[in-house]
Design brief:
- There is one protein chain.
- The protein has about 260 residues and is α/β, with parallel strands linked by helices.
- It has a single domain, classed as Rossmann fold (3-Layer(aba) Sandwich).
- About 35% of the residues lie in helices and about 25% in strands.
- It has eight helices and nine strands.
- The strands form two sheets. A seven-stranded mixed β-sheet has the order 3-2-1-4-5-6-7, sandwiched between helices.
- Helix 1 crosses helix 8 and helix 3 crosses helix 5.
- The chain binds glycinamide ribonucleotide.
- The site of glycinamide ribonucleotide (GAR) has 18 residues, from helix 1, strand 5 and helix 8.
């Protein structure tokens, strides 16, 4: 491979997964490099990690964008190619019975922020975009502009639970509170739902009687740092293929979804 595999990353916090990926690249375990690190949070500690490794960084301050728009809903801020009905019909983040004003504000504010993200990513071409503790849901506005070929998704996420259990923002907390005896982490491609996309890899750990939320997080993170580089490597080596499968629900309804097949070494 002449050209190095280019990884773009979005983060919100401490960036320990980002660090594991930077280290894997620098150690040659991933034959690639970080093209940029972006964040929705100006104070994300992970930005400093990126700067230390001379990786370009940028911030799109979601909190300010959302606050400003709610105070003064100026539709002139919306991207030129914004199409509310189209986004509404494709998104599956919000339930159909969600208050329509709330839905509209959510889709508008995210499209404004996501357009800014796309603009800031533009100078840095990438092959794969990884979400490494990025705590914002992405809408079809962003996803479709990155995933231009539906057969080749290229946005990955790491989630702190064994999906499809415990999607959302507190995977380890939910696993612990439920009294699970096994916890874990999942890497998956992003689709239009919250943590619902095709699963690429998972790792699990035992939960013992004397475990606390803190010890569970420690066990989980240590596995995340192994799993994410492994999954990125599979992608870089062209070993991930998504295929459509259909299945029948108990009520007889037929559903279709994409799953990941890992191709031979
Ligand atoms: C990780 O545990 C990751 O799985 C989780 O945030 C943490 C980020 O840690 N992600 C999510 O919950 C996404 N919904 P890090 O900033 O140290 O990599």
């Amino acid at each position: 491979m002449d050209k190095k595999f280019r990884i773009g990353a979005l983060i919100s916090g401490g960036g320990t997964n980002l660090q594991a990926i930077i280290d894997s690249c620098e150690a040659g375990k991933i034959k690639g490099k970080l093209a940029f690190v972006g964040s929705d949070n100006p104070d994300a500690k992970g930005l400093e990690r990126a700067r230390r490794h001379k990786i370009p960084t940028f911030v799109v301050d979601y909190t300010s964008i959302i606050k400003r728009f709610k105070k003064k809903p100026d539709k002139a801020l919306l991207p030129d190619d914004y199409n509310f009905d189209d986004l509404l019909s494709r998104q599956t983040l919000l339930l159909k019975n969600t208050d329509s004003k709330k839905t509209e504000t959510f889709i508008m504010t995210r499209a404004i922020a996501e357009k800014e993200l796309l603009d800031k990513m533009k100078p840095y071409p990438f092959d794969l975009l990884i979400l490494a503790g990025f705590m914002r849901n992405l809408t079809p506005y962003f996803i479709d502009r990155v995933n231009t070929d539906p057969d080749h998704p290229r946005i990955m996420n790491i989630h702190p639970a064994l999906l499809p259990a415990f999607s959302g923002t507190d995977g380890y907390g939910d696993t612990f509170q439920y009294g699970c005896k096994v916890g874990g982490c999942t890497v998956h491609f992003i689709d239009y739902g919250e943590d619902t996309g095709p699963i690429i890899g998972q790792k699990a750990f035992q939960i013992e009687n004397n475990d606390t939320l803190d010890t569970i997080k420690k066990k989980g993170l240590a596995l995340e740092w192994e799993l994410y580089p492994e999954c990125i490597n599979l992608f870089a080596k062209n070993r991930l293929k998504t295929v459509k499968v259909s299945y029948i629900l108990q009520n007889g309804e037929e559903r279709e979804r994409r799953i990941v097949k890992i191709l031979g070494s």
